């Protein structure tokens, strides 16, 4: 089939998918009374499925999906891969359903493949590479959003623990102290503590609500705080003093991590530059002068069929070069990453 026809088909599919998402993604309709009640509770409570794995539940400010996405979500609800997607979406606080996330991946693949096909002079191998890149782009964004949120949470946790300890000394219960955190602290830590308070108000035990927060925020410092609270609830003790010590340890750890990050910033930037500059320069040269770069991967003669116009040596060189770049990048990241 002519590559132009393939491009037109791809763009048409992209437009169709975009129209479907625009029309149906945020429709939302009311179901039966039991389902409506369950949906309202699910906006606040993070529950566990039968296998002990967490499902992502909607928050109060999340828009309800349409009947289309609801039906697809119900069809793939018990699939193993959707459970992992729900966990990652909850950890990144991205208020979309697994179906919408899968649609975003498909759209990203089509768009990047079409752009690579146009920019690199109708090169089908590079268009396929663009589709592979488009498959990973939403994952990269999700991981970056999760890491950023976790970093902000850890940076606020020391002051939050001090606030809870001061609230306990002034006569607050642990739930009232967490409620004050939700009112006075900025996001994302205020969002998580407000969610804990809502879950407890809806009948979830304190221990389970806090364990749900640990699952949404995979932080070792938060796990330490929740463990101290649960142990104090079982055996007693001065919780305010314990939390004050934990808060001091966390603040010192954050300070040391900041100093280490400053000292290793140059090495980390060098790793990114040395790793990605050859790849970017190679793609730019191919886009500007495909004949010059094509001699490395194509070797055609007038009597040779187009399907056999390949240069194995060039592809081997590219593969070895990418492998060595990956090894160098991994080594640099291992050197500059210091655990505290």
Question: Explain this structure to me?
Answer:
The protein is mainly alpha-helical and about 350 residues long. The chain is about 75% helix and about 0% strand. The protein has helices at about 5-25, 35-40, 65-75, 80-90, 100-120, 125-170, 175-185, 190-200, 205-215, 220-235, 240-290, 290-295, 310-335. Helix 4 crosses helix 6 (about 125-170) and helix 6 crosses helix 7 (about 175-185).
Number of spatially distinct domains: 3
Low-pLDDT runs of 5+ residues are 23-41, 43-63
Determine the mean pLDDT: 76
Output the radius of gyration.
26 Å
User: What class do helices, strands and sheet pairing give?
Assistant: mainly alpha
Specify the number of helices: 13
How many strands, what sense, and barrel or not for the largest sheet? none
Strand percentage lies at under 5%
Number of strands: 0
Distance between the first and last residues' Cα: 57 Å
SSE pattern: HHHHHHHHHHHHH
Helix content: over 70%
- Tell me the overall shape: elongated
């Amino acid at each position: 089939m002519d590559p132009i026809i393939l491009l037109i088909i791809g763009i048409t599919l992209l437009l169709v998918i975009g129209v479907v998402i625009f029309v149906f993604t945020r429709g939302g309709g009311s179901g039966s009374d039991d389902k409506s009640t369950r949906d309202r509770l699910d906006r606040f409570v993070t529950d566990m499925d039968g296998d002990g794995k967490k499902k992502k539940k909607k928050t109060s400010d999340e828009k309800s999906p349409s009947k289309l996405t609801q039906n697809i979500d119900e069809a793939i609800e018990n699939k193993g891969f959707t459970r992992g997607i729900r966990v990652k979406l909850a950890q990144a606080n991205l208020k979309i359903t697994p179906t919408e996330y899968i649609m975003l991946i498909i759209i990203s693949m089509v768009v990047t493949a079409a752009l690579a096909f146009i920019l690199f002079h109708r090169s089908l191998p590079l268009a396929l590479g663009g589709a592979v890149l488009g498959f990973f782009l939403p994952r990269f964004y999700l991981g970056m959003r999760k890491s950023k949120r976790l970093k902000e949470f850890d940076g606020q946790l020391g002051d939050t623990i001090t606030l809870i300890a001061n609230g306990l000394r002034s006569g607050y219960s642990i739930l009232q102290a967490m409620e004050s955190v939700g009112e006075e602290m900025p996001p994302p830590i205020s969002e998580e503590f407000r969610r804990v308070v809502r879950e407890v108000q809806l009948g979830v035990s304190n221990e389970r609500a806090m364990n749900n927060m640990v699952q949404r925020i995979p932080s070792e410092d938060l796990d330490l705080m929740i463990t101290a609270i649960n142990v104090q609830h079982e055996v007693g003790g001065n919780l305010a003093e314990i939390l004050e010590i934990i808060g001091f340890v966390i603040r010192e750890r954050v300070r040391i991590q900041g100093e280490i990050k400053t000292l290793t910033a140059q090495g980390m930037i060098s790793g990114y530059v040395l790793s990605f500059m050859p790849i970017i320069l190679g793609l730019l040269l191919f886009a500007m002068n495909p004949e010059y770069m094509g001699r490395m991967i194509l070797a055609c003669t007038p009597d040779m069929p187009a399907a056999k116009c390949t240069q194995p040596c060039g592809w081997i060189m590219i593969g070895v070069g990418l492998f060595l770049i990956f090894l160098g990048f991994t080594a640099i990241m291992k050197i500059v990453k210091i655990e505290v």
